[in-house]
Amino acid sequence: MGQINKLTTEHLYTKYYDCATLYFYTKENLEFDLLITCPHAKLGTAFIEFDYPSIAKLVQLNAQDFADFMSIEYDFGAQPLSHAIAERLYNNYGLNTLVLEPSFPRSVLDANRLYPNCLRNIVDYNKHLDIKDSLVKLHNDYMAKLCHVVALAKSYNALSIELHTMSSYSPNVTKEYYSEAVKENPGNLLEYINLYRNSHKKGIKRVTELFTGDPDNEIFASKELLETLTLELQNKGIVVEYDRPYILAEHLVAHYLVCELNTVCVDIPKDLLSVTTTEDNDYNIAKLKVDQSKLALMAELFATAVVNANSYNLSQPKKRFTYGK
């Protein structure tokens, strides 16, 4: 594992690990100007089928409902958007990007939560300690890889974005601010799924969220990137709110990224990337497809914001750091 593999495009290199995949949209030296993390990029079908088939047998859902649960939980559109941003930055603006994705799905193991919150409460793991221990090791390996990438990004003075997508409507819950909208457990998974299936009928419409940081702990996201992203989004008529509905809770890996890299975390309503939207009669949050024109618009918007923010970063000193195994 860890071997660099050159792909079909001249500039793209990929490093595969059991816990994560690193996509380098860079020159051969692998230096980058931007780090994009997509902690919920994986749908997880293959992960369950080939690595953890026992989970599908243990979860208290039929096969279709479990498939819907995985589809609802992953960040639809985040993976193609992150790569589209990286491609535009490299091809159109000469900026280099590293995209980091975990190998596991949020529906089972959340790469954006620290232990023990990372273990999704879909199985009684006290009765299945072997599965729990295996998942915890996988998460630990991912965190070790992420910490190494963060050190690399710091040495390059790279900008950093954590990219998410979310249900376009909140589930029908009473909280206005939260780190997780609904708490799952092995016995309420069908109720959990239905809250999101019906959120566009009973919930509150969401807009794009930018996280500014954790002011109580004096941790802040990049002011320059926040400003340029806000400007580009608003110029396209996209409404932006800050730190709502989600907060930068301390058990989130995003909290660590903001602390170390001044990462700007972005959460985009899925309507902004999907063919069908919550206004359509046949809308199904578990059966979305990417609208290529929307994807192109969002990718160019993000790329422009990064280019404008990077002009400030160019004036800051960089340290040398060689990427290792």
Structure description:
The chain has 325 residues and is of the alpha/beta class. It has a single domain, classed as Aminopeptidase (3-Layer(aba) Sandwich). Helices cover 38% and strands 15% of the residues. It contains 10 helices and 11 strands. It has helices at residues 45-51, 53-58, 63-73, 78-93, 129-156, 189-197, 199-202, 223-235, 253-261, 292-313, and strands at 4-6, 12-16, 20-25, 34-37, 97-102, 159-166, 208-210, 213-214, 219-220, 240-242, 264-269. It has a 9-stranded mixed sheet with strand order 1-2-3-5-4-6-11-7-10, with helices on both faces. Strand 1 and strand 2 (12-16) form a beta hairpin. The protein is globular and about 50 Å long.
Q: Assess the beta-strand content as a share of residues.
A: 5-15%
Q: Sheet with the most strands?
A: 9 strands, mixed
Q: Which term fits the overall shape? A: globular
Any idea of the CATH topology? Aminopeptidase
Number of strands: 11
Helix content: 25-40%
The CATH architecture classification is 3-Layer(aba) Sandwich
Kindly give the count of domains.
1
The CATH superfamily title: Zn-dependent exopeptidases
User: What is the CATH class name?
Assistant: Alpha Beta
Mean pLDDT, all residues: 92
Kindly name the structural category.
alpha/beta
Topology pattern, helix = H, strand = E: EEEEHHHHEHEHHEEEHEHEH
Low-confidence stretches: 1-10, 318-325
Instruction: Report how far the terminal alpha carbons are from each other.
Output: 9 Å
Quick tags:
325 residues; alpha/beta; two-stranded antiparallel ribbon; disordered C terminus
